[in-house]
Amino acid sequence: MSDDTPARPRVRGSRRAQRPAPAGVDLTPAAHPLTTRATDDTPEGWGETPPRNAGGAGENDERLQSDKPPHWG
Predict the structure, then answer these.
(1) pLDDT, tens digit (0-9, with 9 covering 90-100), for 5-29
(2) The pLDDT value given to residue 54
(3) pLDDT, tens digit, 9 for 90 and up, residues 24-60
(4) Cβ neighbours of residue 51 under 8 Å, at least 6 residues apart?
(5) Residue 45 CB contacts under 8 Å (≥ 6 apart), including other chains
(6) In terms of Cα–Cα distance, which of 27, 48, 24, 45 is closest to 36?
(7) pLDDT score recorded for residue 56
(8) What gap in Å lies between CA 9 and CA 4, rounded to an integer?
(9) Pick from 34, 32, 54, 33: which is nearest to 43 by CA?
């Protein structure tokens, strides 16, 4: 450069650390609608096994119905 042109300061970029996302992380979470339950809201998400008789009567339901306290109506 010649001495008669003013020196432009160098444009600095962001100095924030950038790390790649871990495996399994959604990079755009706001792009998905909230119409389904999160996996943490299910028993399987907590490592539990799903109920055996989902939606049906269990083997203990009749006894529990008959043993309810009188003030429950």
Answers:
(1) 778 888 888 888 888 988 888 888 8
(2) 55
(3) 888 888 877 778 777 778 877 788 876 665 556 677 8
(4) 43
(5) 38, 39
(6) 45
(7) 62
(8) 16
(9) 54
How far CA 37 is from CA of 6, 31, 41, 48, 66, in Å, comes to: 60, 16, 6, 16, 33
Please tell me the distance from the alpha carbon of residue 8 to that of residue 12, in angstroms, as a whole number: 12
Task: Provide the 3-class DSSP secondary structure of residue 22.
Answer: coil
Tokens of 22: 């871990």
- Written as six digits, the tokens of 15 are 């100095």
**Identity at 22, one-letter amino acid code:** P
Q: Where are the alpha helices (DSSP H) in 1-73?
A: 61-66
- Contact at 8 Å (CB) between 26 and 32? yes
Instruction: Record the pTM.
Output: 0.24
**Cβ–Cβ contacts within 10 Å for residue 59, how many?**
8
